[in-house]
Amino acid sequence: MKLFLRATVLLTAVLFLSAGMAVAGPEKDPLKPRVPAAERGKAKKMKTDLYKKAKKASPEIIAEGKKIYEGKGTCVNCHGKSGAGDGPAGAVLTPGPRNFTNCKFHKKRKDGEMFWVIKNGSPGTGMVSLNPSAINDEETWKVIAYERSLCKK
Predict the structure, then answer these.
(1) How many domains does the chain have?
(2) What is the reported pTM?
């Protein structure tokens, strides 16, 4: 399933780009929540036993999250190696993928909201559910810790 998902995302990007279709730019409203209002309160309260806050996760957890982000999680395809939302498949998405180097985004969103989006996908965007088909719950929390580390402020 993981390989199929990765291949589908990349093939879609190649088809759009080779057909000369418009390429999406960076996400237009990085602070807009992607969890539906009815689910947001519950999502904000979601926690893990791996850390109190992803921003303060151990270097080991962040390193594991990076490995998942760049490999098995397929995150790098859309969000890019730097996390700026500039991956090859993300170029055709409207809205563009989240820019995890944007510190304003990280201040506005709770870890549980990020978990919810990875687990369920995001309606109206190109973000598909990755959990549990591509990564499990523990791996999801590790990816969130890595994504949080991309804000350098």
Answers:
(1) 1
(2) 0.83
